[in-house]
From TrEMBL:
Origin superkingdom: Bacteria
Span of domain NAD-dependent epimerase/dehydratase: 10-218
Pfam family, one: Epimerase
The name this protein goes by in its record: NAD-dependent epimerase/dehydratase domain-containing protein
Native organism taxonomy: Bacteria, Bacillati, Actinomycetota, Actinomycetes, Propionibacteriales
Gene Ontology cellular component annotations, sorted alphabetically: cytoplasm
Length: 312
């Protein structure tokens, strides 16, 4: 068997997005063959050699059946978080489960889904949160509720090993980045957005570290295990949390505000001050490489409009 034919085939949806693009690059670095699913021709990462671009709607069952044929793993990253509830349910929930069912029918072995730590209750006084943490109820907001429902729907679909990757705020330079681009733009343009709670936990992970974990799981470097502290449960649905160094909202907002030259109003309100626990991911062999200082330097440089200034 040739080295190329032995390499796992991984299908990545949303391959032109912040997470999807970095995941494609990380998979290639780990030796996988990547099918990058995008809606428009030429939208797959152009600076990453070796990607097979596949153009189509991942939520279309016929297209899904074609693109997953012969794959070892599928990775789903698509969720229109800024859209209304119906769009989030149509794309994030119906689309993801349609794609997953096609993968099961095709005999794909693993599914890695990029979820969010937003599905956990993180109210004042909650304390630290691990993968057994309580999930949000109705009334938490459209995004966390729909993502919670997507996770629940994935858990109900058997016949494949499923991993729910749950990152908090995802840092990383890109036009579509919420925390490096969109949130700073809101603070720049709207004084009403310049409020924060200084000691509130700012749980975060850099997109490169997120992509590394997804690539390790999707590429098969992390073996199945009946013990979820050591690897994904075979045939089961295993959530796994990711987070970088502990940080506060004050650290994030001051970095943005100083780069913009604006002031933050600090509100005296109760807030979550616990941590997102990552013992499971670390037990799988994952360790974040991007420090808080380097992530904040990259953030500040991007807000000021300068070149990226980040080292691992």
């Amino acid at each position: 068997m040739s080295e190329q034919s032995a390499a796992p085939v991984v299908v990545v949806t949303g391959a032109n997005g912040l997470v999807g693009a970095r995941t494609c690059a990380a998979l290639l670095a780990h030796g996988a063959r990547v099918r990058a699913v995008v809606r428009r021709e030429g939208a797959a990462p152009q600076d990453v050699k070796g990607i097979e671009e596949v153009v189509g709607d991942f939520a279309d069952s016929s297209f899904a059946a074609q693109v997953v044929r012969g794959a070892d793993t599928v990775v789903t990253t698509v969720h229109p978080m800024g859209s209304d509830r119906s769009a989030q349910e149509e794309v994030g929930l119906t689309g993801t489960t349609t794609f997953l069912r096609a993968a099961v029918e095709a005999g794909v072995g693993r599914h890695v889904h990029v979820s969010t730590a937003g599905v956990y209750v993180r109210d004042p006084g909650t304390g630290d949160v691990d993968e057994a943490g309580a999930l949000v109820g109705d009334g938490a907001g459209t995004y966390p509720e729909v993502k919670r429902d997507v996770d629940a729907a994935i858990a109900e679909i058997g016949g494949i090993t499923r991993v729910l990757v749950r990152p908090p705020a995802i840092l990383g330079a890109a036009e579509s980045s919420v925390w490096n681009t969109l949130r700073p733009a809101a603070l720049r343009d709207d004084p009403e957005q310049r409020h924060g709670i200084a000691d509130k936990t700012f749980a975060w992970v850099h997109v490169d570290d997120l992509a590394d974990l997804v690539a390790l799981v999707a590429g098969g470097a992390i073996a199945d295990s009946e013990d979820p502290s050591r690897g994904p449960v075979p045939g089961g649905c295993t959530p796994v949390n990711l987070a970088g160094e502990p940080a506060t909202e004050e650290r994030y907002l001051r970095t943005v505000a100083d780069a913009l030259g604006v002031e933050i109003t600090w509100d005296d309100e109760p807030a979550w001050t616990g941590q997102l626990l990552t013992g499971r991911a670390r037990g799988w062999g994952w360790t974040p490489r991007v420090t808080l200082d380097s992530a904040m330097a990259e953030l500040a440089s991007g807000v000021r409009g300068g070149p990226e200034d980040r080292e691992g």
